[in-house]
Design goal:
With 246 residues, this protein is of the alpha/beta class. The protein has eight helices and ten strands.
C-alpha cells in the first residue's frame, strides 16, 4: 500500500486516520527527539526527526524510487507569516530583511515536493502574509466546522484542558492545495467562546478557548495552536481516499 507523509508535523494528528486504515505514515519534524513508531489500527505512524530546511532532506523525500506517496500534508512554521504577529514584522525586518522570504520558501518547498511526488496535498497556514507573498489560499475553514466527524463523547487525547471536545472552537485556517485534493464536506458543531474582559475599548470579548488558554512563545503553545484538528483530518482522509485507491 502507498504511504502518507506529513511535513512539519509534531503530533501526527493529520496521519492517524490514514494509519488506522492500514497506511504506513511518516511525520517529519525537527522537534522529534528521535525516530520512533506508533501503531494505529492496521497501520503505523513513523515519527522522523528531520530538518526540513535542508535541501538534502527534501531531496531524499522526493526520491520516487523510494517513496510511493499517496497523500501529503504540510504545516510549515507560521510565526513570521501569521497576521497575529504583524506588529513585530517591522522589527524583524530591521534585523533580517529576508525573514519572510525564508518563511515563504518553507511553504513553497513543501508544495513543490508534493508536485514532484505527484500526489494530492494541502499546505496549511493561518491568515497572514502568505496570500500577498505567494498566492491566495484555495480553501479556508474553522475546526468546529468538522467537529461532526468526531463522536459525541469525544475528548482531545493530548490537550483536553485546552482544546474542547469535538474541536468546538474557531481558528480560521487557510489551505493551499493541489494534485487533485478534494476538500471535504463540512459537518459543523456549535463552537465554544470564552468571554474575556478587555481594558482596551473597541477590543472584542469573546475568544476561542484555545487562544485564551495558551499564551506566550513556548513550544507547547505553538504545538497546541498548530495541532491539526482531528475532525478535519478524518474528513480529509475520507474525501480523498476513493481517488487514491483507484
Amino acid at each position: 500500500m502507498p504511504i502518507v507523509i506529513s511535513l512539519y508535523d509534531y503530533t501526527g494528528n493529520a496521519l492517524r486516520p490514514w494509519a488506522e486504515l492500514g497506511f504506513r505514515c511518516y511525520a517529519f519534524d525537527i522537534q522529534h527527539s528521535a525516530n520512533s513508531k506508533v501503531y494505529a489500527g492496521e497501520g503505523e505512524i513513523n515519527f522522523i526527526k528531520a530538518d526540513l530546511s535542508s535541501n538534502d532532506v527534501m531531496l531524499e523525500i522526493a526520491d520516487t524510487d523510494v517513496w510511493n506517496v499517496a497523500f501529503l500534508s504540510a504545516f510549515p512554521p507560521c510565526t513570521d507569516l501569521s497576521s497575529a504577529g504583524a506588529r513585530w514584522w517591522k522589527s524583524k525586518s530591521d534585523i533580517d530583511p529576508r525573514f519572510q522570504d525564508k518563511a515563504v520558501s518553507a511553504v513553497t518547498s513543501a508544495a513543490s515536493l508534493a508536485q514532484t511526488l505527484g500526489c494530492p496535498y494541502y499546505v496549511e497556514n493561518p491568515i497572514g502574509a502568505l496570500s500577498r507573498l505567494w498566492r491566495k489560499p484555495d480553501h479556508m475553514f474553522d475546526p468546529y466546522e468538522y467537529g461532526g466527524y468526531l463522536s459525541e463523547d469525544d475528548a482531545h487525547p493530548t490537550y483536553p484542558d485546552v482544546i474542547p471536545p469535538r474541536d468546538a472552537y474557531r481558528k480560521r485556517t487557510c489551505l493551499w492545495t493541489g494534485g487533485g485534493f478534494v476538500m471535504p464536506e463540512k459537518q459543523p458543531v456549535n463552537y465554544i467562546n470564552v468571554k474575556v474582559n478587555r481594558a482596551e475599548k473597541g477590543k472584542g470579548e469573546n475568544y476561542s478557548p484555545v487562544h485564551v488558554r495558551t499564551g506566550g512563545k513556548s513550544e507547547r503553545t505553538k504545538n497546541i495552536r498548530s495541532a491539526t484538528p482531528r475532525g478535519f483530518a478524518i474528513a480529509v482522509c475520507q474525501s480523498n481516499l476513493e481517488r487514491i485507491l483507484k
